[in-house]
Amino acid sequence: MSLLPSFALSYRLLNSELVERFFLGKELRAMELRWEGLLKTYRKRAQQFCTKLIAIIGLGFGLAPPAPKEVGKLVDWLTRLCRGLGPATEQLVNRWAVTLFGFYRCHQRSC
Question: Which of 63, 92, 79 shows the shortest CA–CA distance to 22?
Answer without folding.
Answer: 79
